[in-house]
Design a protein that fits this description.
Blueprint lengths: L16 H18 L7 H8 L8 H14 L3 E6 L2 E5 L6 E5 L5 E4 L6 H11 L9 E4 L2 H7 L1
Bound molecules: zinc ion (2 copies).
One zinc ion (ZN) binds next to loops.
């Protein structure tokens, strides 16, 4: 018999208190992404949840975001001014990015349709399964300021 056989593998005090707190944060981060249509940054999520979770770290926010992306719960829209912008809206849609203020706006019309996918598939010998369209320019607020 192994001399370590009496070693308690599971501590009776091993209540998953920390883990519970972790998943509460995880849930809050996911909800924060879904609570806005501004396509938030990790920094924004951190600032928004900090009052509710004073021990929250930016690293925790980043770790959860990358696991959400792996699980397909959120998508990355683009990197704007060095910050990754996230989207909780998983239905296919396009985006407009304001090059001045960094606003990311949903464009819900399907401007590039399935025939464009087919055309690229045929012309380039690839297999298109989806497409992303990014429009750039000035948002309505910024274009009013510059006029
Ligand atoms: Zn703007
Ligand atoms: Zn979007």
């Amino acid at each position: 018999m192994d001399s370590n056989a009496s070693f308690p593998f599971v501590s009776p005090k091993g209540k998953p208190v920390k883990k519970q707190n972790f998943s509460r944060k995880r849930q809050a981060i996911l909800e924060a992404i879904h609570s806005t249509c501004t396509h938030p940054t990790a920094e924004w999520i951190y600032q928004t949840l900090k009052p509710q979770f004073p021990d929250l770290s930016l690293g925790t926010v980043y770790r959860n975001i990358s696991s959400f992306k792996e699980q397909g719960l959120v998508v990355r829209v683009a990197t704007v001014n060095g910050q990754e912008r996230l989207d909780g809206n998983l239905s296919p849609h396009s985006h407009f990015i304001c090059d001045q203020c960094g606003a990311v706006v949903d464009i819900l019309e399907d401007l590039i349709n399935a025939s464009a996918d087919r055309k690229v598939t045929e012309q380039y010998g690839v297999c298109v399964t989806s497409h992303e369209v990014l429009f750039h320019g000035l948002c309505s607020a910024c274009s009013q300021k510059s006029c």
